[in-house]
Every structure is written in structure tokens, then in C-alpha cells.
Write a structure and sequence with these properties.
- The protein is mostly helical and 369 residues long.
- The protein folds into three domains: 166 residues, Orthogonal Bundle (Lysozyme), CATH 1.10.530.10; 73 residues, no CATH class; 47 residues, Membrane-bound Lytic Murein Transglycosylase D, Chain A (Roll).
- Helix content is 51%, strand content 8%.
- The chain contains 16 helices and eight strands.
- The strands form four sheets. It has a two-stranded antiparallel sheet with strand order 1-2.
- The protein is globular.
- The N and C termini lie far apart (99 Å).
Length: 369
């Protein structure tokens, strides 16, 4: 004799599942879930349908191997919900400026997702290999594309300059490899490394090239980011407009300095904090602004009256703090020089924008107070 409850479980329930799924009932459930801000399951997030494109190229996700690689990056991203929320919020702040530059450079809008993968849109992001900034430029590559990188300024942290440099670099790579997807692989692993692999494997199909594991993941991570940020609700991220960070807005101040000055002097002239100057101009290092022509970003409206206030503060500062110079002699050290002038080592380092690892040489000139 068959138990009635067991019969229902084994026969009726599978039949109902088949009927519901075949009539589109599951799709309706998904729609209801989205309308009610219900987080879809992880499996729903990787049930890809329709065409997936990146930089105009169709991603062949029907290929099991490619689908597997894309599924992995989508799952890892969606699982890290706090990180995705920050991606969405920061993209509202920075994407308008990145998109404007990409448009001016006649480059695909999809490239705006590259700095999300590279740095999560954080100016101070750095890697163990020495890559820094929004687009994670190495020092040598950054300098090759016009970025200033020294003890005073690191343009890799400047959104506008680093984005221009990235556009220049990606354009070069696209010309060299004939594909934006291959260009991004070269951006990650270096053009010489990619060239070597293409020649060794006699293959230029980005989806079937065997590349370093990091690079194999890199492209699919960017594609996954695009998929999530273009349709966040589909992946369970329901942010209101008020949740997003406001788009970066600013006024510019321009001046020409004939000597180093403390950044705090500029902050006082703009009636803002030292921290605001540093936050809005992350490329400026240390506590001093070096000589020469300068452009800084400040909050909108703070430029009014700035020139007059700055001129007055600069004049009084120059009278009160006339800088002295010390020419380093053979055998001298930073500790010895600081002690000789009754300064702390930290003050001497800060005044000259030095780190504790700084090595001085005879003939170097140090600022003193």
C-alpha cells in the first residue's frame, strides 16, 4: 500500500514544478521578487539570457568554458554585497567625468568599468607591484603617458589626468593588438607578455588564449562588473537616488608659486580644512605645495574672494616664515641636521616632503624653519 503523502511528494510535486516552469511561472516569480526588493538567489544571478556585449564584442557565454569563467566572477562579485554597494555609490560620483573623457577620446563607454575592477574607484588604492590610483598605473607606464610622479605630486591619483593617460595607453594597445579585449589583457599583463603568448600559441582569439591566471580572470571580472552595475536590481541591489554619492563637483583655483608653501595656507585662503584640500586633490603629497604653476580643486563657491585672501596670507606668511636653506655637507644625516637646528626629525621631513627612507647626498638643499 502506497502512503498518500509520499505519493504526492514523489509524483505530484515534480509535475507541478514542470508545469509552473514551462508556463513561465518562475519568470513571474522573479518579476514579483524584483518589484518587492527581494534579493534573487545566487543561481538566478548566473542564469544568463540574451546577448552579452563588451566594447562591441559579443561574449560567447553559450560556450561552457567561457560561461564557467563568467559565472565565477559574477558569483564572487554578487556575494561581496558591501563592495558592490560601494561600486554603485562611487560610480555615481565619478562616472560622469570618466564618461565625458571617454566620449572626448572617442573610446567605448564600457571602458569606464576598468577603474572599478582596478581600484574600486579609490584614488589611494595601491598594489604590491607598485601600481597606484584609479587606473592602477605603474610608475614607469604612468610617466610614459604624461603623468607626473614624484615626492610632491602623484598624478595617478588625479581622476582627470589618470583617465586621460589610461585613454592614451588603451588606444595604443588597441592599435597594436587590434582589439579592445586584447588591449585590456595587455593593460593587465603588459604588452610584451601578451605578444609573447600570441606568438607562442599562434592564436589571437582572446577567449581561447592561455594567459596568466590573473589576466584570464581580469577580463571576465570587468564584464561581470558591467553586468551588475548596468542592472543592479537584477542582482538584488536596490539603491535609491538619495543613496548614491553626489557627482563630483568643484571649482578650480590657479596660481603660480615661486617657492614651496604649506597647503594649510591655501586651505585658510579658501576657508576650508586641510583635509578638504587633500581629499579633493589626492595627487598632492605631503604638507607642502611646490613651486610652479598650480591648479587645485576646491568646493564650489569657495573660489570667491580666494585670490585676495591668499595674497594677504601669503604676504604675511612670507614675512614671518622666510625660508632658510641648508646645503648638505659630506657625512651629514637628516637626524644630525634636525638636531643642529633644534628641529624634530618629523618636522624636517614634513617640511621637505621626505619620507623616513629618504637618502640625502652632499649638495642637496633642505628647507628649514
Amino acid at each position: 500500500m502506497i502512503r498518500f503523502d509520499l505519493f504526492i511528494f514523489r509524483c505530484i510535486v515534480p509535475l507541478l514544478v514542470f508545469v509552473f516552469s514551462s508556463t513561465g511561472f518562475c519568470k513571474e516569480l522573479n518579476k514579483v521578487a524584483l518589484q518587492n526588493n527581494i534579493v534573487p538567489s545566487l543561481m538566478d544571478s548566473i542564469r544568463f539570457s540574451g546577448e552579452i556585449k563588451f566594447c562591441g564584442v559579443t561574449i560567447p557565454h553559450e560556450n561552457p568554458q567561457i560561461r564557467q569563467r563568467l559565472e565565477k566572477e559574477v558569483l564572487l562579485a554578487v556575494h561581496n554585497r558591501p563592495q558592490v554597494i560601494l561600486w554603485i555609490k562611487r560610480s555615481a560620483r565619478y562616472f560622469p567625468h570618466i564618461e565625458k573623457i571617454l566620449n572626448q577620446e572617442n573610446l567605448p563607454m564600457d571602458l569606464k568599468y576598468v577603474p572599478v575592477a582596478e581600484s574600486a574607484l579609490r584614488p589611494h588604492s595601491s598594489s604590491s607591484k607598485g601600481a597606484v590610483g584609479y587606473w592602477q598605473f605603474l610608475k614607469a607606464t604612468g610617466k610614459q603617458h604624461g603623468l607626473r610622479i614624484d615626492n610632491n605630486i602623484d598624478d595617478r591619483r588625479n581622476l582627470f589626468k589618470s583617465t586621460r593617460a589610461a585613454c592614451s595607453y588603451i588606444k595604443e594597445l588597441n592599435v597594436q593588438f587590434g582589439s579592445y579585449l586584447l588591449a585590456l589583457c595587455a593593460y593587465n599583463m603588459g604588452e610584451s607578455g601578451l605578444n609573447s603568448e600570441i606568438k607562442a600559441q599562434e592564436n589571437k582569439n582572446v577567449f581561447s588564449l592561455y594567459l596568466p591566471l590573473e589576466t584570464q580572470r581580469y577580463l571576465f571580472k570587468i564584464i561581470a562588473i558591467k553586468m551588475i552595475l548596468e542592472h543592479p536590481e537584477k542582482y538584488g541591489f536596490f539603491l535609491k537616488s538619495s543613496d548614491l554619492y553626489p557627482a563630483l563637483s568643484f571649482s578650480k583655483i590657479n596660481f603660480n608659486l615661486n617657492t614651496q608653501i604649506p597647503i594649510v595656507l591655501i586651505a585658510q585662503a579658501a576657508k576650508i580644512s586641510f583635509k578638504t584640500i587633500k581629499d579633493m586633490n589626492p595627487e598632492v603629497r605631503g604638507y607642502l605645495l611646490d613651486s610652479g604653476k598650480k591648479t587645485l580643486l576646491i568646493p564650489v563657491g569657495k573660489e570667491r574672494g580666494f585670490k585676495e585672501r591668499f595674497s594677504n596670507l601669503y604676504a604675511s606668511w612670507g614675512e614671518k616664515y622666510k625660508p632658510r636653506l641648508h646645503v648638505v655637507k659630506p657625512g651629514e644625516s637628516l637626524i644630525r641636521i634636525a638636531k643642529h637646528y633644534n628641529m624634530s626629525l618629523t618636522s624636517l621631513l614634513r617640511l621637505n616632503n621626505f619620507s623616513f627612507k629618504k637618502v640625502i647626498h652632499p649638495g642637496d638643499r633642505l628647507l628649514l624653519r
